[in-house]
Amino acid sequence: MKYVERYFNQLLPVLAEYQFTNGGSVIAFQVENEYGYADGDKVYLQQLVDLMRNNGIVELLVTADGASTGTSGSLPGVLFQTANFGSDPAASFGVLEQLQPGQPLMCMEFYPGWLDHWSESHHTTDPSVFRSNYEATVSYPGSVNLYMFHGGTNWGFLNGANNGPGDNSGFQPTTTSYDYDAPLSEAGDYTPKYDILRELLAQYNPVKTLTPDPPELVEREVYPTLALDGQLTFNDILSRSIDPITSDTTLSMEQLPINDDSGQSYGYITYRQENIDIAAGSTLTITSHVRDTVMILINGVLISNRLTSSDNLNDFGYWRMEDSTITLTTEDLTGVTLDIVIENFGRVNFGNLYQQFKGLTQDNRVYLNDQELTSWLIYPLQFNKDWINGITDWNPVDLDFGPVFYNATLSLEESEDGYRDTFIDMSAWNKGVVIVNGFVLGRYVFIGPQQTLYLPGPFLQAGDNEIIIFEQFQPAAEVKFSKDAIFSNP
Fold first, then answer.
1. Dihedral angle, C-alpha 69, 70, 74, 78, nearest 10 °
2. Is the dihedral of CA 164, 168, 174, 175 positive or negative?
């Protein structure tokens, strides 16, 4: 709790000024979210309440959980309970009426759609089903907060994940797109659900108001297809721009002595063995479950399998396998460099939240045949903006198998009206990361369902716009744009 206390002691006095009792607009504070699905530690919840009250928060304190969790995520008589659901409001509100007789009813998260995980089908909810469930909620009567009203984007590496067991085998990384099949799409488009909301809110709002016409949408742009300008191999990137950390043992991202000793939060990490001999038929074993994806390189050449289907997620190099083993070579190798490249594919925000160390963690040991490997060079690949913008001297393109960095240039003339939004179509690529003008848009994975990355117009500038693609496996020959989002079902 010491970190929460340190943060809240700075944050809460600022928020306290905006409370309704101080002339502001804030009428309630949510203390926890869906904690009923976790431990339900009442001491912890009371500590949060005390922190808030001691820092000047006087408004209503609430929690939000699925109704099936009862009071496990709340403090009866202390915290006002709300429910999260997307259907059957009578069931959830019925539970709240039993837990809090005579109290107002509130759905804190009403789901008009759902989020996507990589390798799943794209989630949609029929507008007629949405209408029925939403109308049943507001007519109950109950108050409603939509989650989500406007679809969004998990920029950079900030996508979350779900998890089951603590061993990482149930890890489900969320896509970069958080479109959610919401009433307003990721790109801000009106959908049939938006029209339904306008109609029902006008019908059930007891205070009749004049509803303005919605703003006119600006059509998105399909910018010209771009040829690739240059490439840099993974060895080029490591040798040119990243200073390694030496360690007798492997260190997780979070244990690295960087960023004022706070470690590495996101991106990739490489564990290197130099000048080693590998006999024909040798195997490499990583114990426990990896966190989260792994590529094996020898002298900069990928020798682990490329991602060709969602079935590969059950093989070496992915989180589902425990104590996974790969054969390294069919011939004797002398004095080679062995790289283990690991990706943090997302931090868990629902499910088992414990031990979220990434890279080679305390659970992992690495064996070459029966010999545990020690004495590592460790390279953090964080994709910081200054580092990205410092990548220069690109080599000619020859479309190597990855991991390889590629760049392309979108040249735009000066425009007083700015530049229109677009989507980058990555459906012909395999798996990796897209960066525009030093900003990490997010990930792409060909197994879907997401096939495009949303690029807002304000991210673009007059003149040259540099697009960098870190492709882990197999590149395409060009960069294409799309007017609309593209989803595929695996």
1. 170
2. negative
Residue of 143, 8, 133, 20 lying closest to 80 (CA atoms): 143
Distance CA 105, CA 94 (A): 9
Matching residue, tokens 């049939």: 192
- Annotation says 34 is catalytic: yes
Select which of 32, 109, 186, 343 is catalytic: 109
The DSSP string of 160-193 is: EEE--STTSTT-EEBPSEE-TT-SB-TT--B-HH
* Bridge partner list, 471: 404, 432
The sheet with strand 439-445 has its strands ordered as 230-233, 404-412, 463-471, 431-436, 439-445
Question: Of 5, 34, 97, 221, which is the active-site residue?
Answer: 34
- Using the Cα atoms of residue 293, residue 269, residue 375 and residue 307 in order, give the sign of their dihedral: positive
SS3 per-residue string spanning 426-463: CCCCCEEEEEECCEEEEEEECCCCECEEEECHHHCCCE
Instruction: Give pLDDT tens digits for 229-249.
Output: 999 999 999 988 789 999 999
User: Could you tell me where in the chain the CATH 3.20.20.80 domains are found?
Assistant: 1-110
Check: CB of residue 79 under 8 Å from CB of residue 63. Answer: yes
Q: Are 301 and 333 in contact (CB under 8 A)?
A: no
- pLDDT digit string, tens, across residues 220-230: 999 999 999 99
Amino acid identity at 273: Q
Q: Taking the mean position of all CA atoms in its chain, how far away is CA 294?
A: 18
Integer Cα distance of 336 and 300 in angstroms: 10
- Residue 168 clears pLDDT 80, i.e. is over it: no
pLDDT at 163 over 90: no
Tell me which fold the domain 226-230+385-482 belongs to. Jelly Rolls (2.60.120)
Tell me, which fold does domain 1-110 have in CATH?
TIM Barrel (3.20.20)
Query: Tens of pLDDT along 338-360?
Result: 999 999 999 999 877 766 899 99
Question: Which residue, among 310, 268, 294, has the nearest Cα to 448 in the 3D structure?
Answer: 310
Whether omega for the bond prior to residue 141 falls within 30 degrees of 0, making it cis, is: yes
